[in-house]
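Blinded run. Sample ID left blank on purpose so nobody reads anything into the name before looking at the predicted structure. Input follows.
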Amino acid sequence: MAFLFATPSVHALDFELSQLELVKCDTADPASKQPKGYRSGCYILNGQIKSSAKSLTKDIDVFAFIYDASDEEVLPNRPRIGSINNVPVGTSQFSVRVPIPSFAVPPFTIKKAKAKVAIPVPTISKDTSDEDILPLERGIEG
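Blinded prediction complete.
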């Protein structure tokens, strides 16, 4: 006997990134200088994002690999470099702040840049009622 399950069709939204440029914060935003002693430099990734959605899209993660002048990856094992709160339909400008380690030497190259709808991350609730506590936690608290 064979069982067939119908699964809903999920269409991924397409976001195109273009015109990408990495600019030092003090150039792009003079008020955002890093305090002395920070081991990372502040940069801003500016660019354009094109949305094919039918309406405003919230919480978009931006991914990219950034390489320094010696072609070394600047943020190894960390392709997610930031997020954009709201992306309107069509093409719009965006900026994402990126902490670049101070040992990385410019000019920087940006490769494999893409954007996707963010995956919601569970957070700890501020609800103090017993309804928000798991049965095991109730047993621990007495």
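Unblinding after everyone has recorded impressions. Residues 1-11 have pLDDT under 50 and may be disordered.
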